[in-house]
Design goal:
Length: 432
Amino acid sequence: MIEQHEPPLQLPAAVAPPPPAEKKPPSHKGWIWVAVLIVVAAAAYFLWPKLTSTPAAVPAKGSGKGGGGGGAPVIAVRSRKGDMGVYFTGLGTVTPLNTVTVKSRVDGQLLKVQYKEGELVHQDDVLVEIDPRPYEAALMQAEGTLAKDSATLANARIDFARYQTLLSQQAIPEQTFATQKAVVAQEEGVVKTDDGLVENAKLNLTYAHITAPITGVIGLRLVDPGNIVHASDANGLLVITQIQPISAIFTIAEDQLQVVLQKKRAGQKLQVDAYDREMKTRLAQGWLTTLDNQIDQTTGTLKLRATFDNHDNALFPNQFVNIRLLVEEKRGVILVSTATIQRNSQSTYVYVVNPNSTVTVRKVTIGTTEGDDSEITSGLTVGEVVVMTGVDKLQEGSKVTAQIPGETASPGASQKSSASTATKSGKTRKGK
C-alpha cells in the first residue's frame, strides 16, 4: 500500500518575511558638521561687537604710518604761553589776633546787659552794668575825708607860717617851729592818702560800667542779669574775639624753610591764599606776617602766621583751612594740560598731532605743576597740538581725528590751511 503525502502549504511571496538588512558602518559626517557649527558660533560671538560698533571708532583701512582715510577720534589741546605760580601748601587753623574774656573787677549785682550775642561791638562800647550805688557811696565818703584832712592841712600851714615869723623874732623856741613843720608834713601825707582813696573809689565806680576792651564779635552770654558777680570769679561774663583782621597759623616742611627765609630777608611780601577743606574755594587772600622761632622736631615742620583783612567774614575762628604760600611766580612759560602728560618707566612724553593728522611721541621735561596745568621746560613749543584723551589707542604714526575744545577746524586742517596760505603768498611774491 502506497502512502500519499500532501504537499506542504506554501505561503504567498507578499507575506514572506523580509531578509535581514545588512548593518552599515557608522558615518562621521554628522560630527564634522557639529564641529563646524561650534567654530562658526565662536567666531560670531567674538566678531559681532566689532561688526556692530560705531564706524567712526574703528580705524580706517590703511591707517597708521603713511596710511590714508579716517583716524581715531581724540581730544587735543594747544600748548600756550602763560604765567604759573610756585606754591608751598600746608594745613592751617584760623586764629584770632586777639581774644578777650571779660571779667568783673568789682563785686556787685549784674543789673544790665547791653549787648546781643554774636554781634560786632567796638572798643569802649558799654557792655555790662553792675550796681554802682555802693561805689558811689564809697566815693562820697572818700571825698568827705579828703575835705576834712585838707582843712586840717590848711590850718597847720597857717600855724607854720606864724611860727616862722615868730622864730625870726626869736619869740618862740626853735623846737616849736620844727614840731609845727612836722605837723604840716604829716597832714600833707594824710591828704595824699585821701586823694588815693578818692581815685580808687572813682575807679571802682568806673569798673561798675564794663566796656569792650577791643573791637570784635561777642560770643554767648555766660552770666545772666540779676546774678551777683565777684572779681574773684573764675569764669568771665563774656568773650570777645577779634575777626577783622584775623590770622591763620599753618605749617610748612623744614626743607622749604630756606626758600621762605630768603624771600623774607630780601624784603619780599609773600602772598597767602586760604582755601576751604576740599581745596576748591578760595576763602581769603592775605600776606605772610611772621615765622615761629623753632622747628617742631616731632613733625619736622615750622609754624607760620598769615594775616587776612577778612572784610567779608569768610574766615571764622578755629576754622580748618588749606593754605597756599606763593614763593615764586614764573612768567612767560609754556603750559599744557596735565592730562596730556604720559609716563612710563623710562621717560615722560606726550602725543603731538602733526599737520598730516598723524601723531608722534615727543619726550618732554616737566617743571612746575599747578592745578590742571603743567610747565614744559623742554620738548614743546607754543601752539603745538597735544592729545589729551584717547591716547590708549595711539602709537607712533597713528592717524587721528583731533578735536580741540573751542576750535571748529581740526588741527591738521588748520595747520595745512595756514601752510597753504603761506605757500600761495610766497608764489605771489615771486611772480611779482
